[in-house]
Amino acid sequence: MTADFVPQNALERQLVAAQNGEIPPEQFIETLLGSEVFMPIYERHAIGGLQSDQRAQPLKLVSDDGGEVLVLFTSPERAKAFVRDFPGYGGGLVTELTWIFEKLGIGFGISLNPDQTYGMDFEARDVAQLAGSSGAHGQA
């Protein structure tokens, strides 16, 4: 866990406030749905540093119950220490959470800021609810 967590953006300020009980969780969720997040992506380079695969491979872990968990961060800076344990995932994509739902669908959990002082885990059913409330209707 990171000892000092200084919020760097509006999403992080809302996350801290929600986890400290200063705002209702629903207010944080609303902010999350309207925010950009950082998604670590596997970078497999071929000859000349060109991407050999056109399909992005986001960092997903397997939960204790065998389900997939997509790893996301509130900023690229938050990901640096975590992705050191996952060779090839040094890069990534900053995008809206709703775009992720549209492109990847649902059927997986989300871990937001794993190993950070302030983070949040969402079960697959919670992700489905988030996607539904955002208007994104992707399918896994």
Q: How do the helices and strands line up, and which of them pair or pack?
A:
Elements: H1 10-19, H2 25-33, E1 36-41, E2 60-62, E3 68-72, H3 76-83, E4 91-96, H4 97-104, E5 109-112, E6 120-122, H5 124-134
Parallel strand pairs: 3-5
Antiparallel strand pairs: 1-4, 2-3, 5-6
Helix pairs in contact: 1-2
Question: Would you give an account of this structure?
Answer:
The chain has helices at residues 10-19, 25-33, 76-83, 97-104, 124-134; strands at 36-41, 60-62, 68-72, 91-96, 109-112, 120-122. By secondary structure, it is of the alpha+beta class. The chain has a single domain (36-134), classed as Trna Endonuclease, Chain: A, domain 1, CATH 3.40.1350. Helix 1 (10-19) runs antiparallel to helix 2. 27% of the residues are buried. Mean pLDDT is 88; it is low at 46-52.
From the structure above, extract its key features.
single chain; 140 residues; alpha+beta; Trna Endonuclease, Chain: A, domain 1; 4-stranded mixed beta sheet; two-stranded antiparallel ribbon; 19% strand; SseB_N; SseB family protein
Q: Count of DSSP E strands?
A: 6
C-alpha termini separation: 31 Å
CATH topology: Trna Endonuclease, Chain: A, domain 1
Give the integer mean of the pLDDT values: 88
Which ranges are low-confidence, i.e. pLDDT below 50, for 5 or more consecutive residues? 46-52
Q: How large, in whole angstroms, is the Cα Rg? A: 15 Å
Q: With helices defined by DSSP (H or I, 4 residues minimum), what is the helix count?
A: 5
Shape: globular
| Helical/strand content category | alpha+beta
Q: Please give the largest β-sheet.
A: 4 strands, mixed
N to C succession of SSEs: HHEEEHEHEEH
Architecture, according to CATH? 3-Layer(aba) Sandwich
CATH C-level category: Alpha Beta
Strand arrangement across the biggest beta sheet = 2-3-5-6
| Percentage beta strand | 15-25%
Q: Helix coverage percent of residues?
A: 25-40%
Number of domains: 1
